[in-house]
Amino acid sequence: MSALDAGGMVQISDAAVSVELVGEDMMLNIGPQHPSTHGVLRLVAQVDGERITRLEPVIGYMHRGKEKLAEVRTYPQITTLINRIDWISGFANEVPFVVAVERLMGIEVPERAQYIRLILTELTRISNHLVFASSYPLELGAATPLMYAFRERERVLDLIESVTGGRFHPNFNRVGGVKPAAGGGSTQKNVVLDLPAGFFEATLRTMDKVLEVCDEIDNLVVGNELIQARTIGVGVLPPEIVLAYGVSGPNMRASGIDFDLRKHEHLLPYDDFDFDVVVRSNGDCFDRYVTRIEEIRQSVSIVRQAIGKIPSGPLRAKVPRVLKVPPGEIYVRAENPKGEMGYYVVSQGGRVPYRVKIRSASFSNISVLPWVSQGQLIPDLVATMGSFDFVLGDVDR
Amino acid sequence: MSFTVELLVKVVVVLAIALPLALVVIFGELKVSAHMQSRVGPYFAGGRWGWAQPLADAVKFMQKEDLVPSSADARVYKLAPYVVLMGTLGTFVIIPIGPDLVSRNLDLGLFYVLAVSSLSTLGVLMAGWSSGNKYSLIGGLRAGAQLIAYELPLVLAAVAVAVQAGTLSLNGIVEAQAQPWFHIGDFGVTLPFLVSGQIIGFLIFLTASIAELSRIPFDMPIAESELTMGYLTEYSGIRFTMFFLGEYAGMVSLSAIAATLFLGGYWLPGLSNDLLDWVGPLVVIGKVLLLCFLFIWFRWTFPRLREDQLQSLAWKWLIPAALVNIMATAFFKVVF
Amino acid sequence: MTPSPSETATEPSALAARLAGLVGASGFSAEHGTVKIQVERAGWVEAIRTARDEAGLAFFSWLSAVDWSRQVAVGDPPADPDTIEERYDVVCRLSSVASADGALFVASLPKDDPRIDSLVPVFDGAAWHEREAAEMFGIDFTGHPHLVKLYLPEGFEGHPLRKSFALLSREVKPWPGTVDVEAMPSAENREAGEGGEEA
Amino acid sequence: MASFPLGGLFKGMKVTLKELFTKPVTVQYPLEKETLVPRARGVIALDVENCTVCMLCARECPDWCIYIEGHKEEVPPSKPGGRVRSRAKLDRFDIDYALCMYCGICVEVCPFDALYWSPEHEYSEYRISDMLHDKERLTEWLETVPEPPALES
Question: Which of A129, B122, B123, C198 is the most exposed place for a label (fewest CB within 10 A)?
């Protein structure tokens, strides 16, 4: 080392620093107690500075064992169990399960009950997307859209509460239709739980307000250059990854896959209305956000059309008081606000199902995180995670 | 009066103006942000419109347990808030609130202010490093990078003002803005620097001061949704109040400097000098509250930028613009 | 008219026949509009790969299992216990994103040797589903890159979703419905269908 | 998007400024109270006369949170010389609201209209054991049960 020999002093000018600065990665625990994990999700991230080299989600903190509990509950009791899986869209969880049981028993649901189910499902979708539309900018730092969207969401929840009595867990679905009467006794039987007076007029007024807040959010968030700088081109999901991991719902349609279960499956009479499927092409956080705002507008138009065409009629088909489902297996899926929600019901006769497999949307949506977050910065990870709109109850069941 | 007594009086007067102003700004932020989000804001603290909320918060924080994490570097951890507060309160020394109402008219006033205000960067780094928690470490690193990156545009924008005013002393700058630009009949029209040539300088100064205070859209060091509270994560009790007060006192001090440099300090066209002795402080406070409203308005409308976007904004946009601004001011100064 | 599966899907039994032929299945059924293809355990990965490539079922929906056993510690036993063969059924659901087609592929594993090849080489998304099925049923997925517990804490013994795993919460608390005031003469005698009865 | 480069920011600021001067929508809870929807499921009220201790609600409740005890007692014949009938009397009817999830299965399954929904919701307690309410408390809530609302045409 000639530089060292000359008088033992290192001549800085010719001391070639060839060692590559290798700092070892830091293990950072994001969660389970963290503001942007939408619940109890723990991400063990190997972080080089702020760049993520490897991410390992740890889930199970919210695992309530719904599938095991479903094996000891009678069919009417299971609806109270499953509307707590994705607690932001409570009503929409029950519909596929109830339709599965109806198809197993071969029951025909009256038209009016199907329309009421459809209206309440679309109202739940609006309320779910409003939660997303407001909590996502909060992940990026803007606190104001949260208040506007929740102000309108309260009106939508009041509508649901006026019909069903509950806001988050309405428990209004029954096998064969919707809850027909307040009780089983002589007087309560004829207290019919149809839509309360003034419901249509209140709904139309609320729908105008929801559209208003969508425009406000457009001005405040979608048009904002800072939001665009934080979300365009961030967390891009190519279509083949979407298919391989089973990512569904608005996340799938934001990556250019034109597939909406409401157009393919026939749980609810969606064919009586025309609405278009919102599809965007480049699958980044910005597209996932705009897809959902557009879907709110589509749902509003569906609700308006449904109110115009709702037929009159009974609320529930003739169903024996003690429900015994004939042996059989069926898998029914529906377009839940967060993605494809499906129930694989195996019945062996009797009042209690033999096995219920619950396919929840957020479980698959989250499994993409390790792939998406490679090489991302922490703020990008927070932005990408927020854009998937998942809820831990849906992930852990 | 001997020097020390006079010094004490000045310190008391300066604190008597700065700290209550910071409390007023805290209350302003609570109320304005609430009404911007269609809610009411503080309501019960003090007779149904909540004026006593900042005091209630202060008392609440004081009786909170003030714990020092075991893995923290205790001495540095305890000292950090006071370094930040010292750096912020030090800037009130030379802000003129009247023709001869200033605690010390340094002729190197501008140079002194910018030097002292960068002291709080040191406090933030101390807090980030000594809290012994990964999130505050990341917050500290971000703070270090951000505050240093935005010192430059802040200083360069102020240099342009010094070039146009021809002096570094803040009193001199205010008097420079008091000279009439042109005459309509015999009435001399005076224009604050904001209007006369320094519009770009003002925008750069404003952006840089938002970044200095690490407020949204530049609040990476205290990014609630990523780093829980950044370098403030481990602080609680009276120390957190010091930081909290430091942030709002910093807001008041930076808007006071901006008001002096760009909006003409205590000067209002058409007021005589001795009248200004009395009205001057109100004019300055009015301008400071106006600028604080601007900070608050930005905070509750915009999201926060990502770390690298923030740096590229400073190095690629603000610093070149500030340099061009200085050249242009010098050119016009020479030509006219 | 009962909401039957949609027109965009090919008729279930036709789809079932086509898929079974394509995949070389040992049996198929299409009751209630759900296409179910029985596949041999050995040809499991190949069957899923052909389903994805040739039959266009590229969307990996989910993978789970069903525990068929005669005695059950929880819920109702199967309808006719002695006819069913004790086994684990690994069920994988694939669907297409062009139409409403979708199918359940089922492979039966004997209880004493619950082992099957992992689908991770075909679908990356299968990793989590298989980890869940492994910890809940005790099925071993050979070739799985990272087969550790997904939901349950490290030290948890036992496989909760097996029928032999009792539901503790129901043993601890006595069922409030057992208090017997003589049954109402008018209402038909309501035997307690509740699972927890015999605990 | 915006007309000029940073136009989006100003549009956003316009929205917050407009909101600054509009009346806030929040309700100051303890002072002003919102009127509740008649069907809101706040609490379950019990009508003791109708209850015939048939145990249906206790059996159908998913959470096992209804505890009932009763006994048989003789009832004098309605008309002279008639048969002495025996009737079930309620001794204990507790609902543990710490476990109850307000699903409404008990109200719906009760064949004798003994259980009603009432939107009353201000019954929180300091100790969770106090959430177990007995039949006196449930009867008190009977007055708060509203008339069922009129229905849409």
Answer: C198
Q: What is the model's pLDDT at position A111?
A: 92
Q: Please tell me whether residue A133 adopts helix, strand or coil conformation.
A: helix
Q: Among A296-305, C16-25, C51-60, C165-174, which stretch is predicted with the lowest mean pLDDT?
A: C165-174
Distance from CA of D13 to the nearest CA of A (A): 8
Q: Taking CB atoms and an 8 Å cut-off, how many pairs form between chains C and D? A: 35
Residue B166 has pLDDT above 50, yes or no: yes
DSSP C101: -
Domain span holding position D114:
29-144
Name the one residue in this structure whose structure tokens are 């001495």.
B75
CATH of the domain at C122: 3.30.460.80
**Mean pLDDT across B201-210:** 92
Q: How far apart, in Å, are the Cα atoms of B164 and each of B112, B208, B318, B331?
A: 18, 20, 19, 10
What separation, in Å, do the N-terminal and C-terminal C-alpha atoms of chain A show? 65
A144 and B138 in contact by Cβ < 8 A? no
In A, which residues are within 8 Å of B134 by CB distance?
Answer: 26, 28
Asked whether the beta carbons of residue B38 and residue D19 sit closer than 8 angstroms, the reply is yes
What CA–CA distances, in Å, run from A315 to A110, A114, A168, A184, A284? 7, 9, 22, 15, 43
**Which chains does A contact via 3+ CB–CB distances below 8 A?**
B, C, D
Q: Do D64 and C179 touch (CB under 8 A)?
A: no
What proportion of chain B, given as a percentage, has pLDDT over 90?
23
Mean predicted confidence (pLDDT) in A203-216 = 94
CA A250 to chain B, closest CA, distance in angstroms equals 23
- Give the residue, A227 or A49, on which the prediction is more confident: A227
Report the range out of A203-217, B154-168, D68-82 with the highest average pLDDT.
A203-217
Confidence (pLDDT) at C120? 92
Whether the Cβ atoms of residue D126 and residue D98 lie closer than 8 Å to each other: no
Q: Is residue D13 part of a domain?
A: no
**pTM summary value:** 0.89
**Whether the Cβ atoms of residue A102 and residue A135 lie closer than 8 Å to each other:** no
Closest partner CB to B38 (pick from A50, A140, A151) = A151
Domains held by chain D: number: 1
For residues C54 and C49, give the distance between their C-alpha atoms in angstroms, rounded to a whole number. Answer: 8
- Name the residue facing B307 among A36, A50, A229 (closest C-beta): A50
* Interface residues on C facing D, Cβ-Cβ cutoff 8 A: 173, 175-177, 179, 181-182, 184, 187, 190, 192, 194
Contact check, Cβ <8 Å, D61/C176: yes
Q: Is A338 left (phi over 0), alpha (psi -120 to 50) or beta?
A: alpha
B36 touches chain D (CB under 8 A): yes
The reported pLDDT for the residue numbered C184 is 43
Match 């599809």 to its residue by tokens: A279
Report domain extents, chain B. Answer: 3-335
Look at B225 and A35 and tell me if their CB atoms are within 8 Å. Answer: yes
Enter the tokens of residue B336: 């006219």
The CATH fold of domain A26-396: Cytochrome-c3 Hydrogenase; chain B (1.10.645)
Q: What is the ipTM of this complex?
A: 0.87
SS3 state at B266: coil
Q: Is D15 on the interface with B (CB under 8 A)?
A: yes
Q: Is C108 or A36 the better-scoring residue by pLDDT?
A: C108
Segments forming the whole domain that contains residue C149: 12-165
Of A107 and A25, more confident = A107
Return the bridge partners of A54, or none.
Answer: A46
* List of E strands, chain C: 27-29, 36-39, 59-68, 87-95, 102-110, 115-117, 140-142
> Do β-strands C115-117 and A355-359 pair in parallel, antiparallel, or remain unpaired?
unpaired
Residue A296 distance to chain C (closest CA, Å): 23
Contact pairs from chain B to chain D, CB under 8 Å = 35
Q: What's the CA gap between D42 and A159, in Å, rounded?
A: 16
